[in-house]
Task: structure prediction
Amino acid sequence: MTNEKKLPKEQIASHIYSRPIASSAPLRKSRIPGEVGNSAMHEEREEIYSGAANIRSGQRVVTTPRAVLPEAGEQFVARRNRISAARTKPEASREMVPRTLAQTGVHAPGGSIRAIKQLPHYHAAPMASPIPVRSGRRSPRRRGLLWKILGAFVLLVMVGLGANFALTSTAFRITQVNVAGTHNTILIEKIQHMGMQGQNIFVMDIAGLTDRIDLLPMVASANIEKQWPNHLLVTVSERQPVLLWQTKQGTYSVDKEGVVIAPASETSGTDALMTVVDTRHLGKNSIYPGMRMNAADIAFVVTAFARLPHIVGGEGFTLRYDDTLPATLANGQHNPGSYGSYVVESKAGWVAYLGGPNDTNPLDNRLSELQQILALAQQQQINLATVDLRFGLRPVYTVKH
Result:
């Protein structure tokens, strides 16, 4: 069994194990040569000898030094206590002031922040700096101005090169003109051959080209759009013919505004239109595409074509324009200087003089009178020769013998 002994704090215990010595002679206490004689060291040696005696007997011996130097341990403990005290020391309180918009940039909902000491303001020029400039060093303001001038020069060069490329490159020259809004091949070819191909898309006069297309008799309105980089889209609204006007030079289509559109052979949708036969002795090119006729005459003819089929019935008729017949007034007097009358020639053999658009008697009244006379002739089996409706409310008719 070994003896256990609790060691005091900050003490060192040493354990010495050794086999028993066979000799039983007691150890002799003697001085070590050169040893300084004092009582403390003699006592230690006595303990060592006593311990050695115990070792011979096979017992465990625990020795404790009587004196331990306290300087190192006390210094360590003191330093540790100082560090711990410094960590647990409360932080010194600082002054708290309300938040300000200049410090935070936003309106604070509440609370306080630490006071911020602002840097001193320098009341010098805007570009000045509190740091002195070394001798031989360029001013930042002058260097910034040079960079600005250089950047502006580079920008101008790039703009010039880009403009030159845009104006001279073949990539921006019109190569194709597309026409929408019509299926008339003649009109499409006229528009495509107006010299738009080959022009630069940046400098071409869109307004001038639009006006040129508007002047075409077949076109009511036009619009041009650029399709980058080298195409054009022309959208046209084509004039719609309402009747055909036949002369000795040819037959032309006419719209409701009196504009002569084109020859009937070059106009689409004319198969169902009625034709006015002009018997005047007109010179060459007296009627031509683009010419404007009297709009009142066109409205008069359109109304007559709408009403006459119901009045004449299945007999069929032809509407002629004769300038040898003078126009008349409501009182039956002739209007000096006003010549031209529309004549209805029936396939049954009778002729009706309708007069002109400037007669005071409305056309609806004249057509109603014609209808009543035709009904009377059919009822009485009268063979009509002529019906003159140019005298207002006094129509005149003749019969064949």
User: Anything to note?
Assistant: The chain has a mean pLDDT of 77. The longest helix spans residues 140-168.
